[in-house]
């Protein structure tokens, strides 16, 4: 500014400070706005992150309750299935108990016998197999659809027995005394065709003097078709 007058230099200083002040104020204002915007941005970002976290937490809680509901539903389902299984098993046990019990009373050799019927193929095949005890006043009566020479063996038997083959009138036509469990797989046959077969505890024939022609006195003999 050499060669300029004093007044000109003062004017230039005033203009410089004016421009400097205005620029500084604008820069400061811009910085304030930038800072504010940045703060709002950070606040917005923080708010967004918080919202996302809240949303994730809400989803997690919802999923937890849904899973718990599903788990509870499954447990309820399994509970009722378990109850159903127990009921069915109980009914089956009652049915088996009832069907395995004597259903009639007969007189044989002057004594009373509790009679259990074997009327189906399955029942006749099983017979007294698996029994560990046969009471003295107990007998199993096998009912067949027609007269024939039906063979019997001691498969799955744990106790010895007496076997009596009966005709259509219920009279003894053949006997096998004290048949041992060790006789399996031997098969025992009658000397003539029979319609019924009675099994009792071993020794029954000897104790009560059962002989050919001795009747089994039963009010009604069941009839089967097969």
Report the mean per-residue pLDDT as an integer. Answer: 78
- The CATH homology group name of the largest domain: Protein of unknown function DUF192
The third-level CATH topology of the largest domain is Jelly Rolls
Give the SSE order as H and E letters.
Answer: HEEHEEEEHE
- Major sheet size, sense and barrel closure: 7 strands, mixed
Poorly predicted runs of 5 or more residues: 34-44, 93-100
CATH architectural grouping of the largest domain: Sandwich
Q: How many structural domains does the protein architecture include? A: 2
Explain how this protein is built.
The protein is an alpha+beta fold and 226 residues long. It has 2 domains: 1-73; 104-217, Jelly Rolls (Sandwich), CATH 2.60.120.1140. 46% of the residues lie in helices and 21% in strands. The protein has helices at residues 6-99, 121-126, 204-207; strands at residues 104-108, 111-118, 138-148, 161-166, 172-179, 194-201, 216-217. The protein has a 7-stranded mixed β-sheet with strand order 5-4-6-3-2-1-7. Strand 2 (111-118), helix 2 (121-126) and strand 3 form a beta-alpha-beta unit. The longest helix is centred in the first third of the chain and has 94 residues, at 6-99. The N and C termini lie far apart (138 Å).
List strands and helices in order, with pairings:
Layout: H1 6-99, E1 104-108, E2 111-118, H2 121-126, E3 138-148, E4 161-166, E5 172-179, E6 194-201, H3 204-207, E7 216-217
Parallel strand pairs: 2-3
Antiparallel strand pairs: 1-2, 1-7, 3-6, 4-5, 4-6
